[in-house]
Amino acid sequence: EETISVKLFSEKIGKPVSEILKKLLLLGMMSTINSQIDFDTATLVAGEFGIELEQKIEKTAEDILIEEAPDTEEQLLKRPPIVTIMGHVDHGKTSLLDKIRQSKVTEGEAGGITQHIGAYQVELNGEKITFIDTPGHEAFTAMRARGAQVTDIAIIVVAADDGIMPQTVEAINHAKSADVPIIVAVNKIDRPNANVQKIMQELTEHDLLPEEWGGQTIVVPVSAKTGEGIEKLLEMILLVAEVQELKANPDRLAKGTIVEAQLDKGRGPVATVLVETGTLRTGDTIIAGTAYGRVRAMVNDLGKTVNEAFPSQPVEVIGFSEVPAAGDILHAAPADKLSKQVAEERKDKQKAEMLKKMSKVSLDDLFNQI
Ligand code: GDP
Ligand code: MG
């Protein structure tokens, strides 16, 4: 903590040293002209003279680097919903993600090569939907624990020939505690022993009353095998998203979340970023956790090189100094040198405090203002 000498303080506030020492004594402090006093003490003493000290916040490098100016209403534009699929093991999460992707992604892209980058987008009637391709509530919880909000809608998958299982309940609870709307996909309806009514009954026991029965929960019977119900599921996602009025400002430096990251032999650190707001561009200075750098190249979920990534878009980013961690928040930054400095500062701090903004009071600056 910064301090100031009684002598300097006296000069700054234009009061005699002897007067200040008296006030300090009244406060229980034996001091001399050379004693150092802290900000709180200085405030008290100044108050005794009827002088109000103004606290001047000195911005840290982190504050300067990551300017989060509020968006105006006009800047906010509609963005695609981000969807996570959760549910019990073997109920068909991976199959469903694959089927949705197959049925939609390759449609307009004859022979288009799809690649797994941790998230992908599909389009229905000109509207995009983003799916996180790393199912399981563990990833969901891990990211949420790090402050990353990367889900707008949770799809809970329940196998129609099985029922609500422990991990289904966990998934429901996670979605509820994150305050994320739930759509239930009752999967495997192609199976002879599928029983959608039984699943709906079980859902009511977990506070999810199906719309069909007068409740609020959208339940869509699907088959990841035949593709039945997939279109309906996507329509329901768009319907829920419409109500949510999801918006972001594409006209600002990007902020996003690291969905997954690894070290690639040829390309170095590679991370899938889900852009939350702003537009990420090739050449942008970036920082995520203790990793920093410049966007050297970006590849979309179709394996295509792109120069821009918009809100809710997943994109693979090359150019980090090291591999960031899943759940790290990415910021594009205006200043090159600062990003390295900030990344190094973060490294020096405890991981828990990494993103906590700090402010520092400089007594010198403070007194300059009086
Ligand atoms: P996950 O553990 O939730 O990711 O489940 P998977 O997608 O790996 O599916 C588990 C098993 O169920 C696999 O053998 C799939 O082929 C099968 N499966 C998934 N969805 C369906 C479906 O709609 N119908 C049928 N018949 N089998 C399915
Ligand atoms: Mg799976």
From TrEMBL:
Keywords: Cytoplasm, GTP-binding, Initiation factor, Nucleotide-binding, Protein biosynthesis. Residues 78-247 form the Tr-type G domain. GO terms for molecular function: translation initiation factor activity. It is found in: Cytoplasm. Residues 81-229 are annotated as: G-domain. GTP binds at residues 87-94, 133-137, 187-190. One of the essential components for the initiation of protein synthesis. Protects formylmethionyl-tRNA from spontaneous hydrolysis and promotes its binding to the 30S ribosomal subunits. Also involved in the hydrolysis of GTP during the formation of the 70S ribosomal complex. Belongs to the TRAFAC class translation factor GTPase superfamily. Classic translation factor GTPase family. IF-2 subfamily. This is Translation initiation factor IF-2. The gene is infB. The chain holds residues 252 to 621 of 827 of the full protein.
